[in-house]
Amino acid sequence: MEMEIVQVQNYLSHLFFTFSISFLFFSLIVLLLWFRPWCNCHICKTYLSFSWRSEFSNFSDWYTHLLKKSATGTVHIHVLGTTITANPANVEHMLKTRFENYPKGKQFSSILGDFLGQGIFNSDGDMWRFQRKMASLELGSVSVRSYAFKIVSTEINDRLIPFLQSISDRNNSGTVDVQDLFRRFALDTICKISFGLDPGCLDLNLPMSDFANAFDTASRLSALRATTTAPIVWKLKRFLNVGSEKELKHAIKIVDGLAQAVIRERRKIGFSTGHDLLSRFMGAVQEQVDDKFLRDIVVSFLLAGRDTVASGLTTFFLLLSQNPAVASAIREEIETNKKDDVLRPGQLQNMHYVHAALYESLRLYPPVQFDSKFSAEDDVLPDGTVIRKGTRVMYHPYAMGRMESIWGEDCMEFKPERWLRDGVFTPESLFKYPVFQAGPRVCLGKELSIMEMKAVIVTIMHRFNIEVLMSKEKPQFTLGLTASIKGGVQARILHQS
Length: 497
Description:
Layout: H1 2-35, H2 42-47, H3 59-69, E1 74-77, E2 82-85, H4 88-97, H5 105-116, H6 125-139, H7 142-168, E3 175-177, H8 178-195, H9 210-227, H10 231-240, H11 243-269, H12 277-285, H13 291-322, H14 324-337, H15 345-350, H16 352-364, E4 371-374, E5 379-380, E6 386-387, E7 392-395, H17 397-400, H18 404-407, E8 420-421, E9 424-425, H19 446-463, E10 464-468, E11 477-478, E12 484-485, E13 490-495
Parallel strand pairs: 2-7
Antiparallel strand pairs: 1-2, 3-13, 4-7, 5-6, 8-9, 10-13, 11-12
Helix pairs in contact: 5-9, 6-12, 7-8, 7-19, 8-13, 9-11, 10-11, 11-13, 13-16, 13-19, 14-16
């Protein structure tokens, strides 16, 4: 018996030693691949010979640099296994002409699956079409838009403005992190609109909720998976439950807890009388869908309604601090259209310059800086780039907003006038401005998010001047599914004289 135990122990020791050596060897290979400057174009051979961090403060700026140097606006980076494009013709090809050949793909679904599940942002085929149809019916209804506008207006007047007033009353001595402020505001509004739930995040006397922090962590670490050269690295860490994957698992558990609580509450009180999006969605389905499916819907609503709005508002006021002439023009338009402190939908529709300034801000700082698809079959892009089956193809809105070939020599200028024709806002093709995607997957919440951001901008600028302290510095973005500025954005809140 003792002999058998010794043999088992020897076998386990040998197995552990073999595993350890294999893991170390694998890690070495990954490191070599990560730092190997190998690309099929002369641009990448030149610029991948050093770490991008040595010259660029943001990963997206590095991509922009490479794409600007490319004659076609497209590069292929072997070490990442990715084709990246800022060519509008290629974007239209991917998002419309050959839409079926460029799904999110199983690889992408695997990366974000633990966090987003099979929600609308992480699904293809019948699952995506079903959710798309339901969401389109609800988000397109007049009653939902009216309901959302009422909630946004109430949140602005009852919470956001009083808080800003309290900061302004401190005789210029008080500052606030506006990125944190807008995240709290956006989380409150999206929870009310989507679930009929008030998390009360805009009480800045309280720390950010564990849920909000967990949501940020889950977003950041899910994005980290996408930057890993070999998927087996994060998959192995997840299997062993170590490092970032252990932290991600804990964060998702907290997110799931809130989602499950919301679903239980909706089932308890009944969804037939609710005006929130989740209740309407459950009522439209007219059947008992499982909680896992509803959980994925909840997380998708939160990602779309919180992070993108907060990011868009943060960079808007950052750019406004750098461009006082634009701020003056916006205030002039507000004074012309807004006669009292009551905000009305018709007033927002008439403010074409505000709309243009917001679109211009999103052009330079899109909340989602890039998006990826995986080619289902071999293909050739309009610019002649050959795409092999299974290749990750990324289109890059951040880089596209900085391309002279698309926007002209003044592409780096914050110039709302580029969106106006005889004083009327005139949109450009979504394929040269894919901030809200384009084609069959164009963002269904676009109009709601634009309404919310415009309402905040108009109401704040009618009363206050937000003086961003870092306005002359180039923002550095942290890793995440949406753009988030590292260290926050401190600002003074001054009463508008």
